[in-house]
Write a structure and sequence with these properties.
This protein is mainly α and 153 residues long. The protein has one domain. Helix content is 88%, strand content 0%. The protein has four helices and no strands. The radius of gyration is 17 Å and the shape is elongated.
Length: 153
């Protein structure tokens, strides 16, 4: 189990750190430009965090696939990119739909109000939403590894 936890931390931790920064920046920018736009700030924080998170993971997946294919003397093609994208959709699709369309924006809207702290509420919302996000995401990741992430075939 320790090995699995290390693997998940290697996969998700840096993406999560980037996502936290982007979530705070996205929501903070909206609040700076339009102070009473809590809903817009919640949506901006959600989507900024998603771009940072999934951009980093896709970049990591592409880099790993390129390295694997290069070692076999094969090129990285559009089909390879499609396979990387499909693997991300399988890994995150169900978790991400619920997370981005309902859970995370709702928490990013309400927790800053309830806590009385914009930054504290955003961080609390981010971490609370991550709990409901990672359980299905990790299960999907484990199920997709052999079929969609094996570029050795």
């Amino acid at each position: 189990m320790k090995q699995k936890i290390r693997e998940w931390l290697r996969r998700y931790l840096l993406a999560e750190v980037l996502s936290v920064g982007a979530t705070l920046a996205g929501a903070g920018l909206v609040w700076h430009l339009a102070p009473n736009q809590d809903l817009r700030a919640a949506l901006a924080g959600t989507w900024a965090g998603n771009v940072a998170y999934f951009g980093w993971l896709l970049g990591q997946d592409v880099q790993l696939a390129r390295r694997t294919l290069r070692a076999q003397g094969r090129p990285y093609t559009r089909r390879s990119l499609g396979r990387n994208l499909r693997a991300l959709v399988v890994e995150f699709g169900p978790a991400e739909l619920l997370d981005s369309l309902l859970i995370r924006p709702a928490l990013l809207y309400w927790l800053p109000r309830w806590t009385g702290s914009r930054a504290g509420g955003v961080l609390l919302a981010k971490f609370a939403a991550d709990v409901t996000f990672y359980i299905p995401a990790i299960i999907s990741y484990e199920l997709s590894k052999k079929r969609l992430r094996n570029f050795g075939d």
